[in-house]
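[worker-b] picked up task from shared queue
[worker-b] task type: protein-ligand structure
[worker-b] ligand name resolved to 1,3-dihydroxyacetonephosphate; SMILES cross-checked against name lookup, match
[worker-b] sequence length check passed
[worker-b] input payload:
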Amino acid sequence: MKYLIAANWKMHKTCAETLDYLDKFLPSVKDILNVEIMIAPPFTALSSASIRLDAAKKEGEFNVKLGAQNMYFEEKGAFTGEISPIMLNELNIDYVILGHSERRHIFKEKDELINKKMYSAIEHGIRPILCVGETIEEREQGITLNVIENQIRKGLAGIEKDMPYIDIAYEPVWAIGTGKTATPEQAEEVHRFIRSLINEMSKGNDDKTRILYGGSVKPENATDLIKQENINGFLVGSASLDPEKFYKIIINSLEE
Ligand SMILES: O=C(CO)COP(=O)(O)O
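[worker-b] inference finished, payload out:
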């Protein structure tokens, strides 16, 4: 299984800034083929980024994929402000991030909605990354693993058989954008739990599913985190906004 190092830019970068980033970033990773790299810019920059990546692909072997940060589950209709899987298919989007903690907490997305989106993404050939994670209050109450199990069971309800087309990101809410990273041991404890849960749910068919860690990943902590047996890549927020830092995270992850 190739590890996945993914960038979630959140609500950062215009089209022009995205193209400028790709001009700097793409040449630096052109020979890195043993890890998969994904970038998820905002919706407005997806079309330009898709054209730019397509051109790069034609120039040679290439390992950078494009992701969306969200999508709606319907194909079309009266859903003001939403983006459909068909629209993402047109732009050759490979991945979609679903159930991110900012979607859950700021926009009040519930597990049932996230499950419909997961189902729809798989139906349309877009690989979903299901994000899960506990708040600091939940960690302090000692219910971290219950929260994670609940989010995964509800998020994957009815699609356990599709595990080979799904990745999961563990992002503790208290570590996102705070500079506080889970220690490698804290992260590994949850990742090990997720691995055994999805192994059980999919009846052993989980070897193509990567479990990514997200939450204040930086070049300085990437090596120790990726050494953990059940950490199969990263979902990086703020440090991915700088092409050099994101490149260093990738390089530091490869050393192990
Ligand atoms: O939410 C994240 C990625 O999806 C993590 O964000 P930070 O890397 O900024 O903590």
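[worker-b] attaching auto-annotations
[worker-b] The chain is about 45% helix and 15% strand.
[worker-b] releasing lock
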